[in-house]
Every structure is written in C-alpha cells, then in structure tokens.
Amino acid sequence: MKPAFTVLFCLLLLACVPAPRQSALEKRVGDRAPIFSAAGSLDTLVNYDRDYYGKHHLVLTFFPAAYTPV
User: Fold this and answer.
1) Mean pLDDT in residue range 13-24
2) Could you give the number of structural domains in the chain?
3) Residue 9 reports pLDDT greater than 80
4) Under a CB-based contact definition with an 8 Å cutoff, are residues 58 and 48 in contact?
5) Which of 9, 14, 29, 62 has the greatest count of CB atoms below 10 A from its CB?
6) 8 A C-beta contact, residue 28 and residue 22
7) What is the enclosing helix (H) or strand (E) of 37?
8) Residue 19 reports pLDDT greater than 70
9) Model confidence over 23-56: pLDDT tens digits?
10) Residue 50 covered by a domain
C-alpha cells in the first residue's frame, strides 16, 4: 500500500465514527443549570430556578472533604 492511500483510508474511517455524545450529567460553559434547591444561610430553602435563573450568573463547584478518596 502507498502511504497516501493509508492516510486517506484512516481519515475515511475516522469520518465514519460517530462523535461522542454529551452525557446527561456533563455540563459545558453556557449550558442551562439543572433545577435544584439548596439550604440558604437564613434557614430558608433557595430554589435556583425560581429565585435566580435569568437574574444572576451561577458557578457550580465541587470540593471533596479532606482526607477522602475522591
């Protein structure tokens, strides 16, 4: 086989492979945040969708507890 044919064949195979889909839990910049409620600092339940969506930006972060295997 010629090298050019091999490269063309590999590119053709890659073009036929479907692109990986985004999982339901995976979020990217600009994606809508899931609807959730969280405990507020004034002993209230805060509903993000009702109280903040469209009014404020939201940054979701995760901090594992100290000395955990996460």
Assistant:
1) 68
2) 1
3) no
4) yes
5) 9
6) yes
7) strand 37-39
8) no
9) 767 778 888 777 888 887 788 888 888 888 888 8
10) yes
